[in-house]
Amino acid sequence: MPDNFPMSRTLFISDLHLSAERPDITRAFHALLESQGARCDALYILGDLFDYWLGDDQLDSDPLAREVAAALAAFARDCAPVTLLPGNRDFLLGERFASEAGVRLVTQDALRIDVHGQPVLIAHGDALCTDDVAYQQFRRQVRAPEWRTQFLAAPLDVRMQQAQEARRQSGEHKYQSAADIMDVNREAVAELLRDQSFPPLFIHGHTHRRAHHTHHLEGHICHRWVLASWDDGHAHAIFLEDGEVHSL
Ligand code: MN
User: Fold this and answer.
1) Domains held by the chain: number
2) pLDDT per residue as tens digits for the range 49-78
3) Nearest to 126 by CA among 174, 185, 179, 84
Protein backbone atom coordinates (compact mmCIF):
# COMPACT_ATOMS: atom_id res chain seq x y z
CA MET A 1 0.00 0.00 0.00
CA PRO A 2 1.53 3.38 -0.97
CA ASP A 3 2.47 5.81 1.80
CA ASN A 4 0.04 8.43 0.62
CA PHE A 5 -2.92 6.04 0.74
CA PRO A 6 -5.55 7.75 2.89
CA MET A 7 -6.22 6.04 6.20
CA SER A 8 -9.63 4.60 5.71
CA ARG A 9 -11.73 1.93 7.28
CA THR A 10 -14.17 -0.57 5.85
CA LEU A 11 -16.98 -1.20 8.28
CA PHE A 12 -19.05 -4.36 8.86
CA ILE A 13 -22.16 -4.56 11.06
CA SER A 14 -25.04 -7.02 11.49
CA ASP A 15 -27.85 -8.08 13.81
CA LEU A 16 -29.04 -4.64 14.86
CA HIS A 17 -32.65 -5.90 14.93
CA LEU A 18 -33.94 -2.33 14.65
CA SER A 19 -37.51 -1.96 15.84
CA ALA A 20 -39.78 0.71 17.30
CA GLU A 21 -39.56 -1.12 20.65
CA ARG A 22 -35.82 -0.46 20.93
CA PRO A 23 -35.16 3.26 20.39
CA ASP A 24 -31.80 2.81 22.17
CA ILE A 25 -30.56 0.62 19.30
CA THR A 26 -31.83 3.09 16.70
CA ARG A 27 -29.92 5.84 18.52
CA ALA A 28 -26.77 3.69 18.53
CA PHE A 29 -27.20 3.13 14.78
CA HIS A 30 -27.44 6.86 14.04
CA ALA A 31 -24.48 7.54 16.34
CA LEU A 32 -22.37 4.95 14.51
CA LEU A 33 -23.14 6.46 11.09
CA GLU A 34 -22.37 9.91 12.51
CA SER A 35 -19.06 8.93 14.11
CA GLN A 36 -17.74 6.71 11.31
CA GLY A 37 -18.90 8.64 8.26
CA ALA A 38 -15.79 10.75 7.81
CA ARG A 39 -13.29 7.89 7.85
CA CYS A 40 -15.32 5.06 6.33
CA ASP A 41 -14.77 4.01 2.71
CA ALA A 42 -17.48 1.35 2.61
CA LEU A 43 -20.19 0.03 4.91
CA TYR A 44 -21.39 -3.57 4.75
CA ILE A 45 -24.56 -4.55 6.61
CA LEU A 46 -24.55 -8.33 6.96
CA GLY A 47 -28.21 -8.99 7.71
CA ASP A 48 -30.87 -8.49 10.35
CA LEU A 49 -30.71 -4.72 10.11
CA PHE A 50 -34.40 -4.85 11.03
CA ASP A 51 -36.02 -7.09 13.61
CA TYR A 52 -38.64 -7.91 11.02
CA TRP A 53 -39.38 -6.88 7.45
CA LEU A 54 -42.68 -7.83 5.87
CA GLY A 55 -42.10 -6.25 2.48
CA ASP A 56 -40.91 -2.93 1.11
CA ASP A 57 -44.38 -1.39 1.47
CA GLN A 58 -43.47 -1.25 5.17
CA LEU A 59 -41.88 2.04 4.06
CA ASP A 60 -45.41 3.42 3.57
CA SER A 61 -46.61 2.79 7.10
CA ASP A 62 -43.58 2.36 9.36
CA PRO A 63 -41.84 5.61 10.37
CA LEU A 64 -38.78 3.72 11.61
CA ALA A 65 -38.35 2.05 8.20
CA ARG A 66 -38.42 5.47 6.53
CA GLU A 67 -36.04 6.94 9.11
CA VAL A 68 -33.50 4.15 8.60
CA ALA A 69 -33.76 4.37 4.79
CA ALA A 70 -33.19 8.13 4.95
CA ALA A 71 -30.18 7.77 7.27
CA LEU A 72 -28.59 5.17 4.97
CA ALA A 73 -29.33 7.27 1.88
CA ALA A 74 -27.59 10.27 3.47
CA PHE A 75 -24.62 8.11 4.49
CA ALA A 76 -24.35 6.59 1.01
CA ARG A 77 -24.56 10.02 -0.60
CA ASP A 78 -22.19 11.91 1.72
CA CYS A 79 -19.82 9.28 3.13
CA ALA A 80 -19.42 5.85 1.58
CA PRO A 81 -21.22 3.19 -0.46
CA VAL A 82 -23.41 0.82 1.51
CA THR A 83 -23.93 -2.87 0.70
CA LEU A 84 -26.78 -4.77 2.33
CA LEU A 85 -27.18 -8.52 2.72
CA PRO A 86 -30.58 -9.53 4.09
CA GLY A 87 -30.68 -11.73 7.19
CA ASN A 88 -33.24 -14.28 8.32
CA ARG A 89 -35.39 -11.56 9.92
CA ASP A 90 -35.32 -9.14 7.00
CA PHE A 91 -34.98 -11.51 4.04
CA LEU A 92 -37.89 -9.70 2.35
CA LEU A 93 -35.87 -6.49 1.92
CA GLY A 94 -36.19 -5.70 -1.76
CA GLU A 95 -35.26 -3.35 -4.56
CA ARG A 96 -37.60 -0.56 -3.46
CA PHE A 97 -35.93 -0.36 -0.04
CA ALA A 98 -32.50 -0.59 -1.67
CA SER A 99 -33.36 2.26 -4.00
CA GLU A 100 -34.80 4.52 -1.28
CA ALA A 101 -31.89 3.77 1.07
CA GLY A 102 -29.29 4.20 -1.66
CA VAL A 103 -27.79 0.79 -0.94
CA ARG A 104 -26.69 -2.13 -3.05
CA LEU A 105 -28.76 -5.18 -2.19
CA VAL A 106 -27.03 -8.56 -2.41
CA THR A 107 -29.28 -11.60 -2.49
CA GLN A 108 -26.73 -14.38 -2.65
CA ASP A 109 -25.91 -16.20 0.61
CA ALA A 110 -22.23 -15.24 0.62
CA LEU A 111 -20.29 -12.64 -1.30
CA ARG A 112 -16.57 -12.36 -1.93
CA ILE A 113 -15.43 -8.74 -1.90
CA ASP A 114 -12.12 -6.99 -2.32
CA VAL A 115 -11.00 -4.61 0.43
CA HIS A 116 -7.90 -2.70 -0.70
CA GLY A 117 -6.61 -5.80 -2.45
CA GLN A 118 -7.56 -8.18 0.34
CA PRO A 119 -10.21 -10.81 -0.46
CA VAL A 120 -12.92 -10.96 2.19
CA LEU A 121 -15.91 -13.28 2.28
CA ILE A 122 -19.09 -11.90 3.85
CA ALA A 123 -22.43 -13.54 4.72
CA HIS A 124 -25.27 -13.28 7.20
CA GLY A 125 -24.44 -16.77 8.45
CA ASP A 126 -27.84 -18.43 8.86
CA ALA A 127 -27.23 -20.70 5.85
CA LEU A 128 -24.34 -22.26 7.79
CA CYS A 129 -26.51 -23.37 10.72
CA THR A 130 -27.23 -26.68 9.03
CA ASP A 131 -27.80 -28.55 12.30
CA ASP A 132 -31.07 -26.63 12.60
CA VAL A 133 -32.92 -28.81 10.10
CA ALA A 134 -36.34 -27.23 10.75
CA TYR A 135 -34.96 -23.75 10.16
CA GLN A 136 -33.18 -24.74 6.92
CA GLN A 137 -36.43 -26.22 5.67
CA PHE A 138 -38.29 -22.97 6.50
CA ARG A 139 -35.48 -21.01 4.84
CA ARG A 140 -35.74 -22.96 1.60
CA GLN A 141 -39.49 -22.43 1.60
CA VAL A 142 -39.47 -18.66 2.13
CA ARG A 143 -36.57 -18.04 -0.25
CA ALA A 144 -38.49 -19.60 -3.13
CA PRO A 145 -39.66 -16.88 -5.56
CA GLU A 146 -43.19 -18.34 -5.68
CA TRP A 147 -43.54 -18.18 -1.90
CA ARG A 148 -42.24 -14.63 -1.90
CA THR A 149 -44.63 -13.45 -4.62
CA GLN A 150 -47.58 -15.09 -2.92
CA PHE A 151 -46.71 -13.77 0.56
CA LEU A 152 -46.13 -10.21 -0.68
CA ALA A 153 -49.47 -10.22 -2.50
CA ALA A 154 -51.34 -10.27 0.83
CA PRO A 155 -52.14 -6.97 2.60
CA LEU A 156 -49.52 -5.82 5.11
CA ASP A 157 -51.71 -6.45 8.17
CA VAL A 158 -52.36 -10.02 7.02
CA ARG A 159 -48.61 -10.56 6.56
CA MET A 160 -48.04 -9.17 10.06
CA GLN A 161 -50.53 -11.68 11.50
CA GLN A 162 -48.95 -14.54 9.58
CA ALA A 163 -45.47 -13.59 10.78
CA GLN A 164 -46.64 -13.34 14.39
CA GLU A 165 -48.38 -16.70 14.10
CA ALA A 166 -45.27 -18.33 12.59
CA ARG A 167 -43.19 -16.88 15.40
CA ARG A 168 -45.60 -18.14 18.05
CA GLN A 169 -45.58 -21.62 16.54
CA SER A 170 -41.82 -21.79 16.40
CA GLY A 171 -41.65 -20.62 20.02
CA GLU A 172 -39.14 -18.03 18.94
CA HIS A 173 -38.60 -15.12 21.32
CA LYS A 174 -38.73 -11.59 20.10
CA TYR A 175 -35.12 -11.04 21.07
CA GLN A 176 -33.01 -14.08 20.62
CA SER A 177 -29.96 -14.75 22.68
CA ALA A 178 -27.01 -16.77 21.45
CA ALA A 179 -28.34 -19.72 23.44
CA ASP A 180 -31.56 -19.70 21.38
CA ILE A 181 -29.75 -19.79 18.04
CA MET A 182 -27.89 -22.85 16.87
CA ASP A 183 -24.26 -22.19 16.02
CA VAL A 184 -22.79 -22.67 12.56
CA ASN A 185 -21.83 -26.16 11.53
CA ARG A 186 -18.05 -26.34 11.12
CA GLU A 187 -18.30 -28.67 8.14
CA ALA A 188 -20.68 -26.22 6.41
CA VAL A 189 -18.17 -23.43 7.08
CA ALA A 190 -15.32 -25.53 5.66
CA GLU A 191 -17.36 -26.35 2.57
CA LEU A 192 -18.18 -22.68 1.96
CA LEU A 193 -14.55 -21.63 2.42
CA ARG A 194 -13.45 -24.36 0.00
CA ASP A 195 -16.10 -23.29 -2.56
CA GLN A 196 -14.88 -19.70 -2.24
CA SER A 197 -11.21 -20.65 -2.81
CA PHE A 198 -10.14 -20.20 0.83
CA PRO A 199 -10.50 -16.45 1.47
CA PRO A 200 -8.11 -15.42 4.27
CA LEU A 201 -10.89 -13.50 5.98
CA PHE A 202 -14.56 -14.36 6.50
CA ILE A 203 -16.97 -12.09 8.38
CA HIS A 204 -20.53 -13.07 9.32
CA GLY A 205 -23.19 -12.50 11.96
CA HIS A 206 -26.46 -14.21 12.87
CA THR A 207 -25.32 -16.44 15.75
CA HIS A 208 -24.87 -13.54 18.20
CA ARG A 209 -21.65 -15.28 19.26
CA ARG A 210 -19.01 -12.61 18.89
CA ALA A 211 -15.79 -14.44 18.23
CA HIS A 212 -12.66 -14.92 16.17
CA HIS A 213 -12.04 -18.45 14.88
CA THR A 214 -9.07 -19.72 12.91
CA HIS A 215 -9.73 -22.42 10.33
CA HIS A 216 -6.86 -24.48 8.93
CA LEU A 217 -7.99 -26.05 5.67
CA GLU A 218 -5.86 -27.89 3.17
CA GLY A 219 -2.85 -25.71 3.88
CA HIS A 220 -4.85 -22.46 3.98
CA ILE A 221 -5.61 -20.33 7.01
CA CYS A 222 -8.92 -18.52 7.23
CA HIS A 223 -9.80 -16.11 10.00
CA ARG A 224 -13.52 -16.12 10.69
CA TRP A 225 -14.86 -13.16 12.61
CA VAL A 226 -18.38 -13.31 14.02
CA LEU A 227 -20.16 -10.02 14.59
CA ALA A 228 -21.94 -9.22 17.84
CA SER A 229 -25.65 -8.45 17.98
CA TRP A 230 -26.74 -5.05 19.25
CA ASP A 231 -29.27 -6.33 21.77
CA ASP A 232 -27.29 -4.78 24.62
CA GLY A 233 -28.18 -1.39 23.11
CA HIS A 234 -24.63 -0.68 21.95
CA ALA A 235 -23.18 -0.40 18.46
CA HIS A 236 -20.88 -3.26 17.47
CA ALA A 237 -18.79 -3.38 14.34
CA ILE A 238 -15.74 -4.95 12.80
CA PHE A 239 -13.57 -2.77 10.65
CA LEU A 240 -10.64 -3.29 8.36
CA GLU A 241 -8.02 -0.58 8.41
CA ASP A 242 -4.59 -0.86 6.85
CA GLY A 243 -5.15 -4.58 6.34
CA GLU A 244 -5.82 -5.18 10.03
CA VAL A 245 -9.06 -6.36 11.63
CA HIS A 246 -10.38 -4.37 14.57
CA SER A 247 -13.61 -4.54 16.51
CA LEU A 248 -15.61 -1.64 17.74
MN1 MN B 1 -30.01 -13.65 11.90
Assistant:
1) 1
2) 999 999 999 999 999 999 999 999 999 999
3) 185
